[in-house]
Write a structure and sequence with these properties.
Structural class: mainly alpha
Shape: rod-shaped
Strand order of the largest sheet: 1-2-3
Helix content: over 70%
Order of helices and strands: HHHHHHEHEE
Largest sheet: 3 strands, antiparallel
Low-confidence stretches: 6-14, 269-275
Number of strands: 3
Number of helices: 7
Strand content: under 5%
Length: 275
C-alpha cells in the first residue's frame, strides 16, 4: 500500500478526470495484479478524457506562461534591485573616497598653512634680529663718532692752548726785546750825549746816533722764527710793493718850516737829485 500511495501521489496533482486517468494508467502499467474493475474504470476515464475541452489546456498554458513571466519579472526586479544596491554601494564608496580625498586635501592645506605661518614667524624673527643688529651697529657708530668728535675737540683745545701759550711767550719775548732795545737805545743815546754834546747848529744828531747804533749791532735782537701766516702776508706785501711806481716827489715835514726842498726823482734822465 505504501508503494501504491507513492506511485499515485504525483498524478493526483492533475485536475479532475485527467488526474484519476493518469493514476489508473500508471497503476495498470506498474501493478500486475490490477483488477478488472479498475481496468474498466480506466477505459471509462479514457473515454471521458476525450471530451475535455481544449480551452482548459489553453488556460493552463496561459497560466504557466503568466507564472513564467511573473517569475521573470520578479527575477528582473531582483536583478534591478541588486543593480541599484550595487550602484548605491558604489556611489557610497565614491562619496566616501571623495570625503577622504577632501579630508586629505584639507589636512594638506592645513599643514601648508602651518608651514607658511612658521616660515613667516621665522622671517619676522630674522628681520627683528637684523634690525637689532643694525641698531646696535648704529649705536656703536654714534658712540665712536662722539668719541672721535670729543677727541678732536680735545686736540683742538690743546692746540689752541698751545698756540695761545706760544703767542704769549712770543709777546713776552718781544716785549722783553723791545724793553732791551729801548734800554740799549737810551744807554747809547746817553753815551753819545756824554761823549760830545751836540752843537746848537748841528742838525741830524739823532739820525747819526741811530746809524751808529745800527753799525755797532749792539742792540740787535736775536733771530726769531716767523709764523707761516705772518710770513705769507709779509711776502705778499713785498710783492705788492712792486705794483706801485715810485713818485717823483716826496714831501717832508721840514718843508712846512721853510727849510730844504722836497726829494725829486727823475726816471727818464738816469740820475736823481736830493737836498
Amino acid at each position: 500500500m505504501a508503494r501504491r500511495d507513492e506511485i499515485t501521489a504525483a498524478p493526483m496533482r492533475l485536475p479532475g478526470k485527467l488526474g484519476r486517468l493518469a493514476v489508473l494508467l500508471l497503476a495498470s502499467a506498474l501493478l500486475p495484479g490490477f483488477s478488472a474493475s479498475a481496468q474498466a474504470q480506466q477505459a471509462q476515464l479514457m473515454q471521458q478524457a476525450q471530451f475535455v475541452p481544449q480551452a482548459q489546456f489553453a488556460q493552463q498554458a496561459q497560466q504557466a506562461q503568466q507564472a513564467q513571466q511573473a517569475q521573470q519579472a520578479q527575477q528582473a526586479q531582483q536583478a534591478q534591485q541588486a543593480q541599484q544596491a550595487q550602484q548605491a554601494q558604489q556611489a557610497q564608496q565614491a562619496q566616501q573616497a571623495q570625503q577622504a580625498q577632501q579630508a586629505q586635501q584639507a589636512q594638506q592645506a592645513q599643514q601648508a598653512q602651518q608651514a607658511q605661518q612658521a616660515q613667516q614667524a621665522q622671517q619676522a624673527q630674522q628681520t627683528q634680529q637684523t634690525q637689532q643688529t643694525q641698531q646696535t651697529q648704529q649705536t656703536q657708530q654714534t658712540q665712536q663718532t662722539q668719541q672721535t668728535q670729543q677727541t678732536q675737540q680735545t686736540q683742538q683745545t690743546q692746540q689752541t692752548q698751545q698756540t695761545q701759550q706760544t703767542q704769549q711767550t712770543q709777546q713776552t719775548q718781544q716785549t722783553q726785546q723791545t724793553q732791551q732795545t729801548q734800554q740799549t737805545q737810551q744807554a747809547s743815546a746817553a753815551s753819545v750825549a756824554t761823549r760830545r754834546p751836540p752843537r746848537a747848529s748841528e742838525v741830524g744828531h739823532a739820525t747819526s746816533a741811530w746809524l751808529a747804533l745800527q753799525r755797532s749791532n749792539t742792540a740787535a735782537a736775536p733771530a726769531q722764527p716767523m709764523l707761516g701766516a705772518e710770513a705769507g702776508l709779509a711776502y705778499q706785501r713785498y710783492l705788492d710793493s712792486f705794483k706801485a711806481k715810485i713818485p717823483p716827489l716826496f714831501g717832508s715835514p721840514m718843508q712846512s718850516q721853510g727849510g730844504g726842498s722836497p726829494l725829486q726823482v727823475q726816471y727818464s734822465g738816469g740820475g736823481s737829485s736830493s737836498n
